[in-house]
Amino acid sequence: MKAIGIPAETSDRDIESLVDLDIPFPVAEGRDLLVRVEAVSVNPVDIKMRSARPHGDGRPRILGWDAAGTVVDVGSQVTLFVPGDRVFYAGSLLRPGCNAELHLVDERLAGAMPASLGFAEAAALPVASLAGWEALFERMRISTNGDDAGKTVLVIGGAGGVGSMAIQLAKAVGKLHVIATASRAESQAWCSHLGADIVVDHREDLSAQLAAHNIRTVDFILCLADTDRYFSTMAKLIKPHGHICSLVESESPLPMNELRGKSASFSWEGMFTRSLHATPDMIEQHRILNRIASLIDAGKLRSTAKNHFKGLNANNLRQAHALLEAGNMIGKLVLAA
Ligand SMILES: NC(=O)c1ccc[n+]([C@@H]2O[C@H](COP(=O)([O-])OP(=O)(O)OC[C@H]3O[C@@H](n4cnc5c(N)ncnc54)[C@H](OP(=O)(O)O)[C@@H]3O)[C@@H](O)[C@H]2O)c1
To answer: Which of 176, 186, 265, 325 has its CA 20 to 30 A from that of 7?
Structure first.
């Protein structure tokens, strides 16, 4: 079958290492769904995995962890889906990625696609929605019942893939007052369009810009860029007993004592933690994605697909990686069959 990846014998890790491949058909076993992939999206994790050392097992490296498609076969233990169902998912970093004609995913990691969306719009959602949902409602424990209505969240890096979903989730589900950061007119307009109440520029002093809105501290902070750079600013801006969650690995040890006086909490969010460790609650990702689909179909959330490439092939994927690496994505970039 057709796939896009890095051949086993290639030691290069640059964009040109991504080529069209012909690989064996996968077979669904156990709780696996075999999915005909109709659309994929790209994420910073693709760049990290492309740049990682080859695993040396003699097989090509297939990237891609945002997919939408149709179930064509199921393993013997599958109970949640049947062939013909349309699904969307992020999957697992421990398995080949979804940049392929057919792909295997554990049913506990997949959701039923929103009925109101096509494959391209749905492929933009999984990683960003799971990361945003888990960060806001699991790590920071923001109420999904409106009990935190009116509290404030600062989303640092609001216009990117995750920020675009986090702004919407914080508004539609958390009922929060959302402050987002973006540095360009286009990315600032996108954050406002998605529902951010206030947009500030992360190239300028955040405290001073919030002070201009009479805001000294916030209840929650979601950090989607450069944790080292923002840590002390976040420690200054967080309320006593507030909660900060970062999705971005730090380069150096973080000065945690800066949070001690305020008894503020700091969490990491990793949306691949459940699949990497096969946690007993792995099926939560199935439930979160189904909930996202319901919110989309109810008109409370919208897909963040912004740019489409027609055709899931190496040429388009190389262009998508180049755009992602430039670091100024707005919403999501999708490749659809
Ligand atoms: N832990 C997890 O589970 C998980 C999951 C997904 C993503 N991530 C990580 O989360 C981060 C965001 O992911 P993403 O998919 O949203 O990335 P993305 O779509 O590539 O993010 C692009 C956005 O980042 C903003 N940005 C660039 N430099 C910034 C800075 N110094 N401060 C604040 N914002 C900045 C840009 O805004 P302007 O153009 O307006 O400057 C742009 O809109 C990445 O580091 C990614 O690896 C982690």
So the answer is: 325
